[in-house]
């Protein structure tokens, strides 16, 4: 198997393999392992989340340049604007960079809650648009008015008529400035894929045709119709196929034209929401996205132009709110392998007995005499023998030493066979065996914290080692995290999406895995299961001359901080621990002093494993 780990499928030319290392695909090919080593030099261990602002920029530029190109190509007269939906990643290490990068494009922010809106009001580039979606109470609407009064270009998109009534009421109570108003439309078209719950007639959101007419009438009688500027829809996240989007666009374009005809003269914009997909797959067969951004932009512009022209209305301004597409690629989680579960199976651990069962002796023979010409046959035999020994053990005819010897020998035979067979045997046969000998790699990270969508939705994220990419990876792997939850495993089916890793001894060498495309949704959805918190993060800025600079290293929270977040009284905890040490009858004064010092250090350090990784 060629060890590029599907980089040509999911990598979007962001990374490149050079000298066996995965590197940034910039002029200066920076190996990611160099960054990790640099950060760890100062004693930081455990998982590290790396942010690459140049990859945020790449996505933003790609969106604007594709839409602007399509506008030119189709001679489209409406404007194009984009906002970033904060719910996708609200971490300052991401948002502040994004806002800065987005400045020349007038890139705005989208908010779906009070804290997100207040965040947008503080950080948004002042001239850039703010859109507000999601359910709103009177308070949230009030905050929206404050934003408009501060001078922000803000559009409150209402999800239901009661919100509109609230806006009308608020406008009578407050100062003269009123935010722009958007109406979320309920489409009969819905998205596709595992997130497709935001569109469609049974969707949680949006106004029906009847409600739209009522909304326009309400606005008219409140003298606010001139504030109605936008219609909005969002057919779901990770839209893998372009077809539902086209249907939604056609429907929205017609609604736009109809509403314009109802005297909504300032209705000039259609907001398409988010949903641009990211390709996460590491195997061609499992790739899901069936379109490119170029095609997406062309379809949007062409369809809206066609509808506007045929209905004789102004070509609408276009807003998009893509989040996943902008955020996913900027973050890479790196984590050290702590252990290979089968490393116990070494020849020196064999315990010889005066009388060994024939099956164990036969296994020993297989192990001694295996060679490339018989490797497959011996491998099959050893697996059969192993199964027989386990049966004998259950029946009481083999003891624990016999079982241990058989397990060691079988593993050693498997290992030898795999390295001897290499690519020579027929692929399927080897894969079958690989499946039976899958190695468990224990990795210093929490899946619940760092890949929650794998836990919740079985969303796959590309995984590969940072180094050794010029050496053949021989072990079919599954990944185990350090939570003590049996769900904390990422399984790979060798027949569908195999993951092969290297046969290493973590005691002897550091071996890092990287998890890619984790910049969208994973961070804030992450759970503190077992009290593992957000990993240490760092931002990597590339310099003109090819060097790099690591900034904003934020170490993973300390144990005391975690407990404080959970509303424990951390002073009480420290007092109790210290009293219990002081009152221990097992310790003398010196020992007590030492233990108190140790406890202090542990409480102020983070909770990830330290020993090796
Ligand atoms: C979640 C959401 C988005 C972002 O969706 P992506 O799939 O991340 O692009 C955009 N608009 C609205 C209204 C949303 O709820």
How would you explain this protein's 3D organization?
This protein is α/β, with parallel strands linked by helices and 613 residues long. Among the domains are: 53-331, TIM Barrel (Alpha-Beta Barrel), CATH 3.20.20; 347-421, Up-down Bundle (Methane Monooxygenase Hydroxylase, Chain G, domain 1), CATH 1.20.58.930; 560-603, Helix Hairpins, CATH 1.10.287.3440. Strands 3, 12, 13, 14, 15, 16, 17, 18, 19 and 20 form a 10-stranded mixed sheet that branches. Strands 4-5-6-7-8-9-10-11 form an 8-stranded parallel barrel, surrounded by 6 helices. Strands 1-2 form a two-stranded antiparallel sheet. A hairpin with a 2-residue loop joins strand 1 (15-18) and strand 2 (21-24). The longest helix has 22 residues, at 400-421. Catalyzes the biosynthesis of agmatine from arginine. Its EC number is 4.1.1.19. This is Arginine decarboxylase. Belongs to the Orn/Lys/Arg decarboxylase class-II family. SpeA subfamily.
Portion in strands: 15-25%
Q: On the 0-100 scale, what is the average pLDDT? A: 93
Count, helices? 21
Care to count the β-strands? 20
Query: Which quaternary structure do these chains form?
Result: single chain
CATH class of the domain at 53-331: Alpha Beta
